Amino acid sequence: xxxxxxxxxxxxxxxxxxxxxxxxxxxxxxxxxxxxxxxxxxxxxxxxxxxxxxxxxxxxxxxxxxxxxxxxxxxxxxxxxxxxxxxxxxxxxxxxxxxxxxxxxxxxxxxxxxxxxxxxxxxxxxxxxx
Length: 130
Prior knowledge:
By secondary structure, this protein is mostly beta strands. It has strands spanning 4-6, 9-11, 19-23, 28-35, 39-46, 53-63, 66-78, 81-100, 103-110, 117-126. The strands form 2 sheets. The protein has an 8-stranded antiparallel β-barrel. A hairpin with a 3-residue loop joins strand 4 (28-35) and strand 5. The two termini are 21 Å apart.
């Protein structure tokens, strides 16, 4: 466990997120890369589209168990090439996170057309083995 409990709330170190995390089985492959300097890269691939991928970059803020990412650039790759454009996205809106047994759990809001939805996503830490 990377955190300790105090009054029922997990206290996470500032560096607890640093590293690479792969989403636990969903319809697509999402990888989060948290780097020093609060940089974040999100890589997205879909198995049914072998030639397509999306890379989003920006900054994240982790304050206690709160997590938000502000994404400022995306690069979309297709068989015909890649296009990089500026964006203004917020990921993990009102996000809360915890890490236990190398699993990052993020609870946040998503916004489909009609109303906000509580969403939970889990990511496994990718650990290099020598």
